[in-house]
Amino acid sequence: MTLSPIQADALSLPGIRHAFFTREGGVSTGVYAGLNGGVGSRDAPEAVGENRARMAQYLGVAPDDLVVPFQVHSADVLLIDAPFRSNDRPRVDGLVTRTVGLAIGVTGADCGIVLMADAEAAVVGAVHSGWKGALTGALEATVETMVQAGARRDAITAVLGPTIGQASYEVGPEFVDRFVSIEQTNARFFAPSPRQDHALFDLPAFIGARLTGAGIGRFVGLGLDTYPDERRFYSYRRATHRGEPDYGRLVAAIALAR
Questions:
Q1: Ranges of each domain in the chain
Q2: Which tens digits make up the pLDDT trace of 198-253?
Q3: Cα–Cα distance between 24 and 202 in angstroms, integer?
Q4: CATH class for domain 9-165+202-256?
Q5: Nearest to residue 135, comparing CAs of 185, 206, 188, 189?
Q6: Which DSSP string corresponds to 233-257?
Q7: Which of 90, 112, 153, 176 would be a feasible disulfide site paired with 129, CB 3.0-4.6 Å?
Q8: pTM for the whole thing?
Q9: What is the pLDDT of residues 46-99, one digit of tens each?
Q10: CB 124 within 8 A of CB 117
């Protein structure tokens, strides 16, 4: 099976290559079946390495020039100008670069994976944003790092890739309280759940609101829910509900083309 990455029209810009990779086209097996890009998973390292090499080839870079950080659900972002070794990954959740031929990426399996670009300034960014990262400023930090690297805030386009959708994301009252206690208007991102005292959280809308509030020029959400689409997407929550021992990770990556 060949790779079937998702392309966003909003990021089909001069000098930019990007992909929201699905699980199609990889060599992993079992619960990881397909294009698992998670070096933090318990998948066979050689399978993940081959999957990553296929992603790099698609993006037109060498395997070592596709880099993904050690994600820790933080608001920390790093500007890089050269690849780092896979065994020395920085513990951050966002990467920014202005280096041609360097592909920066993030992984996700329900959390938001966001790619950003200012094509005119030749600055790109990638950020992993689950609820914690979104709430604590990972998205705004990535925008700010891009601006510091030379991007113009209102020229930045951001695209949210496959992410758990509201219909699939039930949360308890303490989760809702955490958001509403910070900002009362956050209540608009929650809808009633069929289960008493629970709610459905709209993570994609929350991410979009945070990015729009950061003053970027354009935000696009692809509207793809990871949970129900097992053929194309990995899902941490789906794996947990099934009692599976682990789960694969999707990769989203962006590069300035040579």
A1: 9-165+202-256
A2: 999 999 999 999 999 999 999 999 999 999 999 999 999 999 999 999 999 999 99
A3: 26
A4: alpha beta
A5: 206
A6: ---HHHHHHHT-S----EEEEEEE-
A7: 112
A8: 0.98
A9: 999 999 999 999 999 999 999 999 999 999 999 999 999 888 999 999 999 999
A10: yes
